[in-house]
Design brief:
By secondary structure, the protein is α+β, with helices and mostly antiparallel strands. Among the domains are: 97 residues, no CATH class; 140 residues, Immunoglobulins (Immunoglobulin-like, Sandwich), CATH 2.60.40.10; 116 residues, Immunoglobulins (Immunoglobulin-like). The chain is 27% helix and 32% strand. Strands 1-8-7-6-9-10-11 form a seven-stranded mixed β-sheet, sandwiched between helices. Strands 24, 25, 26, 27, 29 and 33 form a six-stranded antiparallel β-sheet that branches.
Length: 733
C-alpha cells in the first residue's frame, strides 16, 4: 500500500460512511448535551481492575476547579459519537436521515524495534479481529518523521489488517537507547576525569611518591577526554534526533486530535510505541497536546511494545540522576576556576529533563491525563486490548452545568466515588470552559472565548461587521462574514527585551498585537462554525502613528443551511486586555435549486481595482473590482456622488431574461419603483449587478429598499434600509 502524507483532515469521512444508516433501528438517546453544559466520559474500576457497571449518579462526586457540581444527566453508553442536525445539514444530508451512534478509534504506530513491531502487530490484530464491533470505525496512521495515513476510517477488517501490516514493517527508531548510551558515556567520562584529577593533585611537583604524574593517571585523563568527546557526539546526535522525533510525534498526534475534535463524543487513540520523547524544549507541545485532547474528548491508550524489556524506565531515570550528580560534583570540586564543559553549561536543562528521562514517563502522563491507561512491561498485551475495548463499549457519560459558566478559562475536573476510596475513576483531568467548537482553536484564542459570555459585552475597541449571503447553493448558501478593524483604536506597546534579543531590528519599534474571534451559533446556542486569527504588526521606528491610520479586514466564508443563527465577533488586545464584542442575528432563508435566488443587498462603501483576476470565485469581486461594504448604510447627499447597491442573482438555466425592480420607501410608503433589464447570466447562472442611484435625489432621511428579480413566473426579493444625511452632517462608512 502506498503511503500518503497526512494533513488536517478527518472532518466528514465518518459522516459520509455513516450516511446510509437508516432510522429504523436507531436507539433512543437519553442524554443530550445542551449549550453551556460540560460532558465527561468516565470508566470506574474496582481494586481488582474490573469495570463497575451499576453506578448511580448519586454515588459520584464531581469537582470542577474544586467546586462541587450537580450532575444533570448520567448513563452508560456503548457508542459515543452522535452526529448533530447541524452537522448533517452542513454535510448536505437531509435531517430526515438519523444515523445511529458509532465509535471512533485511531491506531497510531511510532518508534519500535523489530521485536516491538511484531508485538504491536499482534496487539492491533487482536483489537481488529476480536474487539471492534460492527459500528466501530478505525483508522490507521504511522509516524515516520511526519504523519502518514495508511487507512482512512472503516469497519472493513481486511483493509485494517493490511494497514497494520504495513505500519509494523517500517524502520526502527530507538531514540531512547541512543540518548541513554550518551548519558552513560558522559557519566563514565566525568568519573574518570575526577579520578585522574585526584591522582594528579596527589603527585608532588618536586618529589613525593614519584617524580611526576603516573602513567595510569595520565592514561585515565586521556581516556576521560576521549570518552567525553564520544559522549558529546552521541548526545548531540541523540538530542537532535530525539528532539526532532519528539517534535514529529507530538505535532502529528496533535494534528490527529485536532481532526477528531470535529466530532462530538468520546474517541480512543491507541498509540503503539516504545518511546515518546519530550524535553525542556518540547514540554510545552506535550502540555498543549494533553489539553487539546481533553478539549476534544480524546482518550489516549499508550501501548508499550518493548515487552519485558531489560531497559527499564527506572534505569533511564537513574542514569540521568547519576549524570546530573556527577556534573554537580565536578562543579563543586572545581569551584569557579577553569573552562566550563558542555555538561556544566547545560546542567539546567539536564535537571529539567530528568522528569522525562524515563522511557515510559511521557506515555504514562499522556494516558493518565486524558482518561486512558498505559499498557506496559508485558509480552501479553491481549488482556489490555480487551480492557480498551471494554472502555469503549461500556463507559459512563455525565453532564453538568459548571457553577462558573463557560468563562473561557482552563478548569480542572476531579471525579470520585463516594464511600469507595480504592476505586479508580479514569476521566479527563480538565477542559477549557468554552462551548463545543465546530473546528479546533489554538490556545491564543482561549482567553477571547471568555469575553463572549460577558454582560454587558465589552465595547472598548472599534470594529464594524457585516454578514452577506450568496445562495450559490440553494441548500447551503455561502455566507461572507466581513469585519473591519481600524488600527487607530489599538495601543502600540514598546518591543520587549526578549523580542529585541530575538530580533535586534525590533529595538526602538512598537508592537501592535490583537486577536479576532468569530463564532456562529444556531438557534439552540450550539456553535456551528468558529474562526480566529492573531495579528502582530511592527511598524518601523517612528512610523507607528502613520501605520495606525490603516484598517485591517478580517473576512471568512462558510456555508450554512437555512435557519436562524447569531454571529459573535470579538476583538481582544492582550497588552491591556481591552476588547469589544458584537453580536448580530443571521437569518438564512430556504431556497430551491431550480428557482431564482437573490443574494444580500450590499450597500457599496468602496470599490478597489484588483491587480490580477483571483483564482477562486469570490462573490464580492465585480468586474475585476473588489467591493467593500458600507456597514452602517449611511450616505451623504451629494450631487457629484452616487449610491451603489450590489447584489448577485442566480437564474436557472433556460429561464426568460431577468428584470430588476427597485422599490424605495419611507415608513413603508413606496416612493418609486424603477425597473430595468438585467444582463444575461454567466455560465454558472449568476448575474452580478451594481445599481447606482444619485444620492442627491433623496432628501435627508431614512429609507427602505426592496430589490426584486423576476425571470418569467419566478422571482426573488431582498430588502435593506439606508440613511441619507445632509452635507456636513456626521456620517461614517
Amino acid at each position: 500500500m502506498k503511503r500518503t502524507q497526512q494533513g488536517m483532515w478527518m472532518g466528514w469521512i465518518l459522516l459520509l460512511a455513516m450516511a446510509g444508516w437508516s432510522q429504523a433501528n436507531a436507539p433512543k438517546i437519553a442524554i443530550h448535551k445542551q449549550a453551556g453544559e460540560v460532558m465527561v466520559d468516565l470508566v470506574v474500576t474496582n481494586h481488582q481492575g474490573k469495570i463497575i457497571k451499576n453506578l448511580q449518579p448519586s454515588q459520584l462526586q464531581v469537582l470542577d476547579d474544586g467546586h462541587p457540581e450537580t450532575i444533570s444527566s448520567f448513563r452508560m453508553v456503548a457508542h459515543s459519537v452522535h452526529l448533530t442536525r447541524s452537522q448533517l445539514l452542513r454535510a448536505g444530508f437531509s435531517t430526515a436521515l438519523r444515523p445511529q451512534p458509532f465509535n471512533v478509534t485511531v491506531m497510531v504506530f511510532d518508534a519500535m524495534s523489530n521485536a516491538g513491531r511484531q508485538l504491536g502487530k499482534a496487539a492491533a490484530t487482536h483489537y481488529i479481529e476480536k474487539v471492534m464491533g460492527p459500528r466501530d470505525y478505525v483508522a490507521v496512521y504511522d509516524i515516520n518523521n511526519m504523519l502518514y495515513a495508511l487507512q482512512a476510517f472503516t469497519h472493513n477488517k481486511t483493509k485494517l489488517l493490511r494497514a497494520v501490516d504495513e505500519a509494523t514493517s517500517g524502520t526502527s527508531r530507538s531514540f531512547a537507547n541512543l540518548a541513554l548510551r550518551g548519558t552513560q558515556l558522559q557519566t563514565q567520562a566525568l568519573q574518570l576525569q575526577q579520578q585522574a584529577t585526584s591522582a594528579l593533585q596527589s603527585t608532588g611537583a618536586g618529589g613525593g611518591p614519584s617524580s611526576g604524574p603516573s602513567g595510569a593517571a595520565l592514561g585515565a585523563m586521556v581516556q576521560s577526554q576521549m570518552d567525553a568527546m564520544m559522549a558529546n557526539m552521541i548526545q548531540g546526535a541523540a538530542a537532535m534526533r530525539g528532539e526532532q522525533g519528539s517534535w514529529a510525534s507530538l505535532t502529528a498526534l496533535g494534528s490527529i486530535v485536532n481532526g477528531l475534535s470535529l466530532l462530538p463524543g468520546r474517541k480512543e487513540l491507541l498509540y503503539f510505541s516504545q518511546y515518546l520523547g519530550a524535553n525542556s524544549n518540547t514540554s510545552f507541545v506535550l502540555r498543549n497536546l494533553m489539553r487539546n485532547a481533553n478539549r476534544a474528548n480524546v482518550s489516549f491508550y499508550c501501548i508499550d511494545t518493548a515487552g519485558l524489556s531489560l531497559n527499564s524506565s527506572a534505569s533511564n531515570v537513574a542514569g540521568a540522576l547519576n549524570y546530573a550528580a556527577q556534573v554537580s560534583r565536578q562543579q563543586t570540586s572545581q569551584g569557579s576556576i577553569g573552562t566550563v564543559s558542555q555538561a556544566e553549561a547545560t546542567q539546567s536543562e539536564t535537571m529539567q529533563n530528568i522528569k522525562y528521562a524515563g522511557r515510559l514517563n511521557v506515555m504514562t502522563e499522556l494516558a493518565a491525563a486524558t482518561g486512558g491507561f498505559l499498557a506496559a512491561h508485558t509480552n501479553a498485551l491481549d488482556p489490555f486490548i480487551n480492557d480498551i475495548g471494554q472502555d469503549m463499549h461500556e463507559h459512563y457519560e455525565l453532564t453538568y452545568n459548571p457553577v462558573g459558566g463557560l468563562n473561557g478559562k482552563y478548569h480542572t475536573i476531579l471525579i470520585s466515588v463516594k464511600g469507595h476510596p480504592n476505586w479508580t475513576v479514569r476521566a479527563r483531568k480538565g477542559y477549557y470552559a468554552i462551548p463545543h467548537l465546530a473546528s479546533p482553536e489554538p490556545s491564543y484564542a482561549m482567553p477571547v472565548f471568555a469575553l463572549l459570555a460577558k454582560t454587558p459585552p465589552p465595547q472598548q475597541l472599534p470594529l464594524q461587521t457585516g454578514e452577506f449571503q450568496f445562495p450559490v447553493s440553494a441548500v447551503t448558501p455561502t455566507v461572507d462574514l466581513m469585519t473591519t478593524i481600524p488600527l487607530s483604536g489599538m495601543r502600540p506597546v514598546a518591543a520587549t527585551p526578549a523580542q529585541i534579543q530575538q530580533n535586534a531590528q525590533m529595538k526602538g519599534r512598537d508592537v501592535i498585537h490583537f486577536v479576532v474571534l468569530q463564532v456562529i451559533r444556531d438557534s439552540n446556542g450550539s456553535v456551528v462554525q468558529n474562526f480566529s486569527q492573531p495579528y502582530t504588526f511592527t511598524p518601523a521606528a517612528g512610523q507607528a502613528k502613520q501605520f495606525l491610520m490603516h484598517n485591517v479586514i478580517f473576512e471568512r466564508k462558510t456555508n450554512l443551511p437555512a435557519g436562524d443563527y447569531s454571529v459573535q465577533t470579538a476583538i481582544y488586545e492582550p497588552s491591556d486586555q481591552a476588547a469589544s464584542v458584537i453580536k448580530a442575528p443571521l437569518q438564512v432563508p430556504a431556497g430551491a435549486a431550480n428557482s431564482v435566488r437573490l443574494s444580500s443587498i450590499v450597500v457599496v462603501g468602496g470599490m478597489v481595482k484588483m491587480a490580477a483576476k483571483p483564482k477562486i470565485d469570490d462573490p464580492l469581486d465585480y468586474q475585476n473590482m473588489r467591493i467593500y461594504p458600507n456597514y452602517n448604510h449611511v450616505m451623504v447627499a451629494d450631487a457629484k456622488k452616487v449610491m451603489g447597491f450590489y447584489f448577485v442573482a442566480y437564474v436557472p438555466k433556460g429561464a426568460p431574461p431577468a428584470q430588476l425592480t427597485m422599490t424605495f420607501s419611507v415608513n413603508g410608503t413606496p416612493l418609486a419603483a424603477p425597473t430595468a433589464p438585467l444582463p444575461a447570466p454567466d455560465a454558472q447562472g449568476r448575474i452580478a449587478y451594481v445599481a447606482n442611484i444619485p444620492s442627491a435625489a433623496f432628501p435627508p432621511g431614512t429609507y427602505g429598499l426592496q430589490i426584486k428579480v423576476q425571470a418569467g413566473n419566478q422571482s426573488a426579493t431582498r430588502s435593506t434600509n439606508f440613511v441619507i444625511t445632509a452635507p456636513g452632517a456626521a456620517a461614517g462608512k
